[in-house]
Amino acid sequence: MFKKILIANRGEIACRVMKTARKMGIKTVAVYSDADRDALHVEMADEAVHIGPPAASESYLIIDKILDACKRTGAEAVHPGYGFLSEREAFPVALQKAGLVFIGPNPGAIAAMGDKIESKKAAAKAKVSTVPGHLGEISDAKHAVKIAEEIGYPVMIKASAGGGGKGMRIAYDRKECEEGFTLARSEAKSSFGDDRIFIEKFIENPRHIEIQVLGDKHGNIVYLGERECSIQRRNQKVIEEAPSPLLDEKTRKLMGEQAVALARAVNYDSAGTVEFVAGQDRSFFFLEMNTRLQVEHPVTELITGIDLVEQMIRVAAGEKLAFKQSDIKLDGWAVESRIYAEDPYRNFLPSIGRLTKYRPPAESSTNGVTIRNDTGVFEGGEISMFYDPMIAKLVTHAPTRAEAIEVQSEALDAFYIDGIQHNVPFLTALMQHPRWRSGNISTGFIKEEYPDGFAVRAAEGNELKVLAAVAAVVDHQNNARRREITHQMSGRPVRFAKRRVVKVGEVSQFLEVAGGEGTGELYFVTLLSADGSPQDTLEIVTNWSPGEPVWHGRVGGTPATVQVRPILNGVNLAYRGVQAPIRVYTEREAALAALMPEKQAADMSKFLLCPMPGLVKAIHVGEGAEVKAGDALAVVEAMKMENILRAERDGTVKVVNAKAGDSLAVDAVILEFN
After folding, report:
1. Which end of the chain has fewer surrounding CB within 10 Å, N or C?
2. Catalytic residue IDs
3. Any residues with CB less than 8 A from the CB of 435 and at least 6 apart, and which?
4. What is the pLDDT of residue 492?
5. Contact indicator for 167, 187 with CB cutoff of 8 Å
6. Which stretches of the chain drop beneath a pLDDT of 70?
7. For the whole model, what pTM was predicted?
8. Whole-angstrom Cα distance, residue 369 to residue 398?
């Protein structure tokens, strides 16, 4: 077995590999760019080597720098993680020449399967059903349109060396095809150093299901069940689960055997994933094979009990698989949420900055329920504009799908992040969505269920009562804390002053807190209706203390986990996908507050603002240009993704304040209109 390995990656996946290596008694070496000098993976490793500037093309993608780091530290093998060099045939070839071991498949398998175009050809040769498409070279956008029209819209435009949603676009007409091809090729070039593109038919209302395979260097190959990854946004996976709620045992066996046959055809000898697009009728077509560890591998680990990173290391060291296909049993259900540094209220645009607070839920595994958080960040760390926006992967495992979703929901409610925008509010809301809970999903789920983008769901029913009651108790506890600090009535039970919860989110009707009492952990809150009659009396049990970011307790006998952020005269609470600022006043304060004028927001309709920190790739208009609603105005790149900024209405450009190459802050003015 290896004594020391180098992880040629960063962030969450580098930390993940290090955990298993440490468990196996193997020392680890990290590599890092200028932007990652203080990163968590650098701190976790036994040794760390600096490899260059922030841009991946000048650091993590330079093979010679990885080889030099191995030579300097005496690392015997290299784990590539995912992304970066993980599917580049040249990387294991270079390692082999240098006398080093690649912890991944052999170069021949990568050549056959890692390249998306070559993998389609190999699958067709192996008589695997594939999606109709064009696998030849595409010269330009006009050529792409011609191919798309021959196949028939909609089509999927994909980078040959792509993955993770980068370099991928769906086109429903000529215009989208032209734009999509140009953007996909540009993203592919910057992310993978390979701008080859292919086009295939896009199957409507599909489901994305993938089979995990694992092979050794002795001809043994098994499949470890399936994962469903249909909850996607812009072709980037957001939620994954294992197994799939669509498949039955017969279909699972068919897909698994086909995946193994394909892997065997290319002498596959590591962990890999064969991806399929499936119809709602359980029909399926080969999509591609990823010759690396997948982001979503934890859900497979939790339902099989097999550490995939450990198996990759053992296989690379020449060991045989210690189990056969008949030994693989699926146990329970696992759900994974990807926590991203992106703003769900601004069309999921990237967000960068410092994590002023980062408090994930505690990891645990008790009574058949597991909470696992794979992360590469820490409180006080910085989210950079140079890399993928993933912060963490929150994974839960339980005996049934419904239980795994419920545990995931509670864990997300407890996942507290401040300092940047993030998608936890969206994920918590999604966990409550009845269609998701039913399992009736497709890759179009987010677009279909949130056609106008994501917005905060208004509190209603029992959620409204929970938020009002928690706000009242928090207010009471804060007041008790102030009295204790000033030595007023210290240690004595204090009755609530009569309060009015003035506004819960968008609910305009006041909910009155008539009174209550309690000290320590037990409280009682009486809610009144608008006419002053008692509506409900709730028993609240909590050991929350003022200043804690997450409130844990029971409201009316039901467990509740609520995020608490102080605001003027109240709190901002987040619970079950609902976020609501709640003002808690005495009757006199409420009467005075009602007289205060509301501040009007500034009119910014005549400005094009940069929606996130990023690099200006192009400005498409000049001063005096007439633009129509929907016209492309500029392209801004952040976190490896290019974003087209379009005109919201007709107008004339008055001033251009930015140029290609500029680095802009969020809300920087790019254009002014007359």
Report:
1. C
2. 288
3. 441, 445, 449
4. 52
5. yes
6. 162-165, 487-520, 530, 532, 640
7. 0.84
8. 5
Rounded distance between C-alpha atoms, residue 432 and residue 405, angstroms? 9
- The whole-number pLDDT of residue 401 equals 98
Identify the CA nearest to 115 among candidates 62, 158, 59, 67: 158
Task: Determine contact, residues 275/290, Cβ cutoff 8 Å.
Answer: yes
Query: Which string of DSSP letters, residue by residue, matches 645-656?
Result: EE-SS-EEEEEE
- Alpha carbons within 13 angstroms on the beta-carbon side of residue 173 total 1
Q: Is 422 helix (H, G, I), strand (E, B) or coil?
A: coil
Amino acid (one-letter) located at 193: G
Q: Around Cβ 370, how many Cβ atoms within 10 Å?
A: 19
Nearest to 556 by CA among 515, 525, 534, 587: 525
**Cα 669 to Cα 467, 511, 592, 665, distances in angstroms:** 38, 42, 38, 9
Q: For the chain, give the longest Cα–Cα distance.
A: 83
> Domains of the chain, with CATH numbers?
4-103 (3.40.50.20), 104-131+207-331 (3.30.470.20), 132-201 (3.30.1490.20), 339-455 (3.30.470.20), 461-593 (3.30.700.30), 607-673 (2.40.50.100)
Q: Which residues of 564-585 are buried (b: 16+ CB within 10 A; e: fewer)?
A: beeeeebbebbbbbbbbbbbbb
Whose CA is closest to 637, among 262, 167, 286?
Answer: 167
Phi/psi of residue 259, each to 5°? Answer: -65, -40
Are 230 and 207 a contacting pair, CB within 8 Å?
A: yes
> Which is it for strands 550-555 and 534-542: parallel, antiparallel or unpaired?
antiparallel
Which pLDDT belongs to residue 191? 76
Token pair listed for 633 = 């105005």
Amino acid at 491: G
Give burial (CB, 10 Å; 0-12/13-18/19+) of 54. Answer: middle
